[in-house]
TrEMBL record:
<dbReference type="InterPro" id="IPR036191">
    <property type="entry name" value="RRF_sf"/>
</dbReference>
<dbReference type="InterPro" id="IPR023584">
    <property type="entry name" value="Ribosome_recyc_fac_dom"/>
</dbReference>
<dbReference type="GO" id="GO:0002184">
    <property type="term" value="P:cytoplasmic translational termination"/>
</dbReference>
<protein>
    <recommendedName>
        <fullName>Ribosome-recycling factor</fullName>
    </recommendedName>
</protein>
<dbReference type="GO" id="GO:0043023">
    <property type="term" value="F:ribosomal large subunit binding"/>
</dbReference>
<keyword id="KW-0963">Cytoplasm</keyword>
<dbReference type="Pfam" id="PF01765">
    <property type="entry name" value="RRF"/>
</dbReference>
<comment type="similarity">
    <text>Belongs to the RRF family.</text>
</comment>
<keyword id="KW-0648">Protein biosynthesis</keyword>
<dbReference type="InterPro" id="IPR002661">
    <property type="entry name" value="Ribosome_recyc_fac"/>
</dbReference>
<feature type="domain" description="Ribosome recycling factor">
    <location>
        <begin position="21"/>
        <end position="184"/>
    </location>
</feature>
<comment type="function">
    <text>Responsible for the release of ribosomes from messenger RNA at the termination of protein biosynthesis. May increase the efficiency of translation by recycling ribosomes from one round of translation to another.</text>
</comment>
<dbReference type="GO" id="GO:0005829">
    <property type="term" value="C:cytosol"/>
</dbReference>
Amino acid sequence: MTVVDVKKTAEQKMHKSIDTLKADLAKVRTGRAHVGILDHVHVDYYGTPTQISQVANLTLLDARTIGVQPWEKKMVGVIEKAIRESDLGLNPSTQGDLIRVPTPPLTEERRKEIVKVVKGEGEDAKVAIRNIRRDANEALKKLLKDKACSEDDERRAQDDVQKLTDKFVAEVDKLITEKEKELLTV
């Protein structure tokens, strides 16, 4: 492994941390409906836990209502029950073979609770990025110890890893601020 490999690996892992944070933030409910909030709801499809999006067509009927159109009629009740029993606090209703999932407006208190959750997600992402920095720095020290690089190269590489860390932590802060603003907008 070389100094370049260590830096490249650290950057790739930090990108993955940002992508994970974006995915987690997409699941956090705002006042508007979006089909992404049903991503982690699974139904029993012939004995296999399956995402709703794999057994039904998800659409937005209006700003506050998600439409779930199962591909098999017998899945209507199963999907409705899975949504109702999820931790999302949603109450779906069935009209024929279409399941309507209204998203209730958020109260001010609930918005503030969700902001705390979002900030916690942000802190987790920052911790992950800092752990990647630590691992990269340890790898660089090992390269120096094994005489695979000079002290100057190792020091420069550690500075580069720190700059990467600062860049990605700033990206996390930006994402959290955007989500917080989105949540607190009524």
